[in-house]
Every structure is written in C-alpha cells, then in structure tokens.
Design a protein that fits this description.
Blueprint: E1 7-8, H1 19-27, H2 39-52, E2 56-60, H3 63-74, E3 80-83, H4 88-91, H5 96-99, E4 104-107, H6 112-118, E5 130-136, H7 149-161, E6 165-170, H8 173-180, H9 184-188, E7 193-197, E8 208-212, H10 214-226, H11 235-245, H12 251-267, E9 271-272, E10 279-283, H13 287-296, E11 299-300, E12 302-304, E13 307-311, H14 318-331
Parallel strand pairs: 1-11, 3-4, 3-5, 5-6, 6-7
Antiparallel strand pairs: 2-8, 7-8, 9-10, 10-13, 12-13
Helix pairs in contact: 1-11, 2-11, 3-10, 6-7, 12-14
Bound molecules: pyridoxal-5'-phosphate.
Amino acid sequence: MRCVTPIDLRSDTVTRPDDEMRRAMAAAEVADDVLDHDPTMRALEERVAGLLGVEAALWVPTGSMGNLIALTLHLSRGDRFLASPGAHVLDAELGTAAWLAGGMPHAVTLTPDAVRGLAGGESPYYGLRTTLLCLENTHNSTGGTVTSVDSHVALIAAARDAGLKVHLDGARLWNAAVALDVPPAALAAGVDTVQVCLSKGLGAPVGSVVAGSAAFAAEARRVRKMLGGGVRQGGVLAAAGLVGLDRISSLAADHANARALASGLASLGWDVAAPETNIVLAGVPDIGVALKELERVGVLASPMAGKIRFVTHRDVSSDDVADVVRRIEGVS
Ligand SMILES: *Cc1c(COP(=O)(O)O)cnc(C)c1O
C-alpha cells in the first residue's frame, strides 16, 4: 500500500503555530512575570477577563493546572464536588482533584434537580459537605456537546440555592460560544471561576487562562507558583494566545468540517451522532482494531468514552476531511 501523509484528527491540540503566530511570539514585549508582570501576559489576561465578563484572569501553562488551581482554592480537604460523568476533572487529570486539591468527587448527570437534591438542605454535623459544582462546556467525553445559555443559567441558579461555588471547565468554551452564536461571557455568567484553553482550537502552542474575581486571581497566582507554573518571559507564549483570540470566529469552520465528516462517515454506514462542535464520536465493534485500520489508511483518531474520537481543527481543511472519508471508504 502506498504511503500517505497521515491526517491527524486525534485532537485539536495537534495544531502547529503558523507564521503569523510565530511572528507575534518573536516580536512580543516581555519581562519577568514572576518578579513583575510580563506586559504581554498582562494584556492577554485583561483581554480574556473582558471576553469572559470577569474581573481578572491568570495565564497558566495548561488547562489541567488552571482547573487544579481553581479546585484547590474552592475545596477544603474532604469536601465533595459534583461533576458530570466523564468530566475532564474526574477522568483526565490523574486524580489531582482528590490527590492535590483534597476534594471528594461525585459524578452525576448534571440537572438543576440533581444539584439541589445532592447539596444544600440541612445536614447533621456528621454529614458530608458538598461545596462545589464543576461544569464543563463544551463537554469533551460526550462529543463536544454544548450546554445552552438557559441550561447554564438554570444550573447556576440551582448551585446558588444549594450554597455551592461553581467552577466552569471551559477548555472549549470558545467552541460552545461559536456554536450558539453568543458571546463567551454569556456562558460564563454567574460562575466563580472559569478555565479556558488557548492551545486547542485557537492554535496556540501553550497556554490556558483561569479567571474569576480579582481576589481569586491574586490567590491563583500564589498557587500557580506553588505548582511550578510561574514562568519568566511568558509574553512569548501569551503573544500566541492573543493571536489565537483573534480567531475565535474561525472555529465555525472546524464545526462545519466535523459535520461534513460525520455525514461522510454516516453515509459509509458508521454509527455517528451529528456533532454540535468539532468532535465526532463513532461507535465501533472493536476500538483497538478500528484505530489500527484507520492508521493504516492514514487517518489518526483516538479512543474516547468507549468510542472513536475524531477532532477537527485549524490544521485540517475541508479537502482533508473529504480525503479522510475517501481513505476510510477504502477500508469499510
Ligand atoms: C484539554 C482539556 C483540559 C485541559 O487540558 P491540558 O492538556 O491540561 O491543557 C481541561 N478540560 C477539558 C474538557 C479539556 O478538553
């Protein structure tokens, strides 16, 4: 079989910074962000805080660190927190929510009634304390599904009734905002803290941002330093994030490519649901066998929640997606 260049749909993190981004990185104004405040990091943090409608924000090297910082500050040892089954904070952060932040995880399909039922109300002194609700929008393991503004508002109201704090894992909040055609701030309304990634669909090589009140950002800076995440001339990285933020609307192209991929796969008889954003989940009889077959024809995908995950991103074009379907047709 002839060699083909693989088309990499394992994740939207595989993008490489393009020339414009690299030029911005090379030209970034920088300073020591631990001693002072790097001017480009400051600009990025202010811009993200504005986009999310919160007071302040802090650049962090990874989304996992952003989530961990928020959970560390929200949870006391032994506090229970609620998150949906398959949530990144439960399944994809190596247990740090428990191990380092001290929280006791509880997975539950998040509805306002479930939140009210599990938290709040009177409890005796020996009762478990539930103190935090963790949201995730879009939701990765269910295939990049979007929580609407109305559902978000209802969950926040339930959390408030139950006296819970709310952290939003918004690694792909930009995708949710584009899919719903609402400003990102509408999907972060009412939360205490929110984490967003710059290194996924927006194409930056490194970086996430965790955001909330000014007091939270100041404490978050201390925890980031504790975790080894204080960087020096980080403006070089923040500059990439700023270029990424100019490209939020272009995520619509990734969503269109995901829809095209899903309908192409469906026409080949694959078991796929219509994607809401840039993630396509496909059910297959044997994941290991399917991934190997795909790789053999030059299509890279990854396992996720008992299915195969294809993620579209800015380094795959609509022609590439058509090519993916042709390559898969050859083996189906
Ligand atoms: C990618 C992702 C993160 C953060 O991942 P890092 O690789 O640590 O940057 C957090 N939550 C969700 C839902 C994600 O998809």
